[in-house]
Amino acid sequence: MASKLWLLKTEPETFSFSTLIKEGKTNWNGVRNFQARNFLRMVQAGDRALIYHSGKEKAVVGVAEVTGNPYPDPDSENPGDWVQMDIRPQFALESRVPLSDIKEKDALRGLLLLKQSRLSVMPITETEFQTIIEMGGIEKGEFCG
DNA sequence: GCCAACGTTGGC
DNA sequence: GCCAACGTTGGC
Q: Which of A1, A17, A55, A132 lies in disulfide reach of A62, CB 3.0 to 4.6 Å?
């Protein structure tokens, strides 16, 4: 099964990539948006995700790996309806990629983030993923995909 | 601080 | 089922 690529959005004041690195893993939960949930259900173990900081930062800061398939979020009123997943940090970008740079890049014009900034889980293409991490100073092939 | 986009709620 | 009002989020 080919692994998929995602972009996960978080408020760094609430949860940041550096916290993820410090803790070594986290439980990605609390998604209460139908569209985001539908994407989250499509995530599978081994998928990778860019981590984007919204708010003051507005930049992609790193890459995380999904360590297990999504499972019910016990914090929700209807645990059957909502899911969560476990992720771990893979690597931080050498330089963060600000939203302003993303907007100027032709290859990233179709990025869902630009149209629906409120979506907390969204799919991205291989090209978009590669483009962003290269903008972040990571050479293609520098990590094991 | 403001506005745009989106989601939710409630009246009809 | 429609739509207005309101709340939330996020960017500027």
A: A17
pLDDT, one tens digit per residue, over A71-125 is 998 877 776 788 999 999 999 999 999 999 999 999 999 999 998 999 999 999 9
Whole-number Å distance, CA A116 to C1' C9? 11
* pLDDT tens digits, one per residue of A20-42: 999 999 999 989 888 899 999 99
Residue A34 contacts strand B, CB under 7 A: yes
- Residues A35, A93, A95: CA angle, nearest 5 degrees: 115
**Pick from A119, A135, A117: nearest CA to A127:** A135
A141 touches A131 (CB < 8 A): no
* pTM score, whole prediction: 0.93
Spatial CA neighbour of A48 closest among A10, A87, A85, A13:
A87
